[in-house]
Amino acid sequence: MTRKLPKLKRIKDMTPDEKKVLSQRIQLYGGVALIFILCALFLRFYNTRLIESSGILPTPRQIVEPIAVTYRAQDDPAWAQEVLGDTGYTMAQEGSLFCSLSMALETCGVDADPGTLNRAFVDNDMYVNGNAADLTRLSELYPQIVFSAPRDFDGEDITQALVDGRACMVRVQKGESAHWLCVVGSTSEDFLVLDPAAGDGEARSLADFGNVFALALFDAN
Question: Rounded to two decimals, what is the model's pTM?
Fold first, then answer.
């Protein structure tokens, strides 16, 4: 026999006591929901501050076979001596960003080597004060590319990009300098990266480089 659900009363048909009980329940459930929201906001704020101050070591959500990309080394003679904006540094010295960017963009259908990218940034005044490449303006060069750099991220963001067939970039610390790596795959325990400074094109464990301070994601329209 099918059991019928009790018919809900309209508020105008409720007695004062029933209205009081309903009000108390709304306040209770609303309070619980508010607590959950505040906790989620706090955890997100805490994670963002943690990333900015100490970095994090993101862990993969699943195994992803390395994406095939053309390895770009900082010391490649084709661009090693190119100067980066007004920094005074050459690609061989501090060119990890453009080498990693070149590899990541290849997985989005853009074929541009590090030297080409650097010259394009210089010619289009895309260095902030001549010293830092402004990736937020990347779509000015390649309108089909969508760039994002979430302040709050974890292994899920990176894993999803890899699953979708796109490499991404992470910033680690190398001595006194910021150093960029191209993430191309993952094992069950760690992400696999290509290091532009290594020169050999071998995929390495992200954990070998320490914590991650920034993530750069790319997609194609």
Answer: 0.77
Q: Under a CB-based contact definition with an 8 Å cutoff, are residues 132 and 209 in contact?
A: no
CA nearest neighbour of 73 among 209, 194, 212: 194
Alpha-helical segments (H) within the chain: 16-53, 91-94, 96-106, 114-123, 138-141, 155-163
Phi then psi for 39, rounded to 5 degrees?
-65, -40
How is residue 37 written in tokens? Answer: 């929201």
40 token code pair: 């989620």
Q: Both tokens of residue 114?
A: 């590090």
Q: Judge residue 35's burial from the number of C-beta atoms within 10 Å of its C-beta, 0-12 exposed, 13-18 middle, 19 or more buried.
A: exposed
Q: How far is CA 104 from CA 7, 67, 146, 209, 216, in A?
A: 59, 10, 12, 19, 9
Give me the DSSP letters along 78-91: TTTT-B-TTS--BH
Vertex 105: Cα angle to 101 and 110 (nearest 5)? 130
Q: Is the pLDDT of residue 44 over 50?
A: no
Q: What is the token pair recorded at 76?
A: 């490649």
